[in-house]
Write a structure and sequence with these properties.
Strand order of the largest sheet: 2-14-21-20-18-15-16
Radius of gyration: 22 Å
Mean pLDDT: 87
Structural class: alpha+beta
Helix content: 10-25%
Number of strands: 21
Number of helices: 10
Shape: globular
Strand content: 15-25%
């Protein structure tokens, strides 16, 4: 069994030895799911400027224990039927393909069903317990996803994003009887909350419901730009790109393998200690767990990198736009309604600052997300193509390295692990992603619902310093 020792877990006594070969094979060809009533007219599905920010495939894997009441073959058929009904009746756009409209230069979804959503079944020679833990973001879990296992020719042959499916599912059975559902979903189709709703609907239809509990609102024009566009604020959280660069997913370039990857398991008690440290000054009236951990991470990471005092350090994080618009968007809005809030400060300021000051900067970023500001963001996207600020590239001088900007991708409270399927809740649900210098993951702590797992990467020297700083919460 191949092993990989370059990743370990902080706050555990031994390094994690992750399995790099899951010995997975597809049992046959992937089936195609598409709406039956296609007709001859080509139909296009409008994408808002928020939808277009990240046209990349987001991949998740969901682990399940065996349930004797639901043999694997029954699970497969229940899922296949539920996915088919959802795509046909409520998420027709997931069977389509992205295309660049030559008349207006905008990306949209071609809903003529060409290609469809893909559904595949696979087997692994291993048992789930052979994986040495499922809560660690192991890159080998990509083998549980259709785009990476058994579909290499699909990935290699897709010269443009227009050729890639928007929705791919792979159900994989392990030797122990447990199984996974691996899902690839284009971010332009659904954001985190609407994807969570999709999984809730999937579970409910698999359980026999005829109507999904969360009927999606598919009107993306609720976030249409104003005419003419009015950009009333600066938007340094976005970096301008050529439209084809954005489509290629340049934000997710392969990571530098010289980095060290670590997972910090913070208990609920530790999160409360960080909050108490921020509150101890008496300067804050409120502070969430996310704000406290994000601010603590931002400060200690910046110091660990040894940035020049005058250099600007950025932290970005997604904020739900739905309740912040005027009028508010429906909670069932099925599309992208999250936007990156940001905080920035010089490295010198962060090094000298108390934690409460860093928390307040994060809170200011959240407070910036008003209807007026978000409408300005939408209008900015009408005139420019851009992605959230990320890796700034090689820095010159004493700073040595990269990493002035980080994006905190929080799966902490998304609730994927709480979805109730007929065969039970997932043992664990989370993203499948290679570690990157400019992306930090906040993941659910399965052992402690009030805790959080923090996954990040740094060069080895900076990581050593970061561990000392981040774990010092006195």
């Amino acid at each position: 069994m191949a092993m990989d020792r370059h990743m370990d877990v902080i706050l555990s006594t031994e390094p994690v030895v992750v399995v790099s070969d899951l010995r997975v094979k597809l049992t046959g060809e992937a089936s195609v799911i598409r709406p039956a009533d296609q007709g001859t007219e080509r139909r296009s599905f409008f994408l808002s400027n928020i939808d277009k920010v990240l046209l990349i495939t987001v991949e998740t894997v969901h682990f399940f224990a065996p349930n004797p009441r639901f043999p694997f073959e029954d699970v497969v058929e229940l899922l296949r039927s539920a996915v088919s009904r959802l795509v046909v009746q409520h998420y027709e756009f997931l069977a389509g393909r992205l295309r660049l409209n030559p008349q207006n230069g905008r990306f949209e979804i071609d809903c003529n069903g060409a290609g469809g959503a893909l559904f595949a079944v696979a087997n692994s020679e291993l048992a789930i317990e052979d994986l040495n833990g499922i809560t660690y973001p192991n890159p080998a879990f990509k083998q549980l996803l259709l785009l990476h296992h058994g579909q290499e020719e699909l990935a290699a042959g897709a010269q443009t994003i227009e050729e890639l499916p928007l929705c791919l599912l792979q159900v994989t059975k392990f030797r122990c009887g447990g199984f996974t559902i691996g899902v690839g979903m284009n971010h332009g189709a659904l954001d985190g909350l609407s994807a969570s709703h999709f999984f809730q609907n999937l579970a409910s239809l698999a359980a026999g419901l005829q109507v999904p509990p969360i009927v999606p609102c598919n009107d993306r024009r609720l976030l249409k730009a104003r005419c003419p566009p009015r950009i009333e604020y600066d938007h340094p959280e976005l970096v301008k790109l050529d439209v084809t660069d954005a489509a290629a997913g340049s934000l997710l370039r392969p990571p530098n393998r010289d980095y060290v990857f670590k997972l910090f398991r913070l208990s609920g008690e530790t999160v409360e200690r960080i909050k108490s440290k921020a509150f101890g000054s008496g300067k804050l009236e409120r502070c969430s767990g996310f704000e406290a951990v994000a601010a603590h991470l931002w400060k200690t990471r910046t110091v660990a990198l040894g940035m020049e005092a005058e250099e600007t350090s950025w932290v970005l994080f997604a904020v739900n736009m739905r309740p912040r618009m005027d009028p508010p968007l429906p909670r069932e809005y099925a599309g992208n309604a999250v936007f990156p809030a940001y905080a920035s400060a010089s490295a010198g300021e962060l090094k000298a600052a108390a934690l409460w000051w860093c928390v307040r900067k994060v809170q200011e970023g959240v407070g910036r997300m008003t209807d007026a500001y978000l409408r300005s963001c939408i209008d900015w996207g009408e005139l420019h193509t851009g992605i959230p600020r990320g890796d700034d590239g090689e820095r010159k001088g004493k700073g040595k390295g990269k990493g002035r900007s980080i994006f905190v991708s929080s799966w902490w409270r998304l609730g994927l692990e709480e979805v109730e399927y007929p065969w039970g809740k997932p043992l664990y649900s989370g993203p499948v992603i290679d570690g990157r210098l400019d992306i930090v993951l906040f993941l659910p702590n399965k052992e402690d619902n009030n805790g959080v797992n923090v996954f990040l990467s740094l060069d080895s020297h900076s990581m050593s310093k970061f561990c000392t700083l981040f774990l010092n919460i006195e």
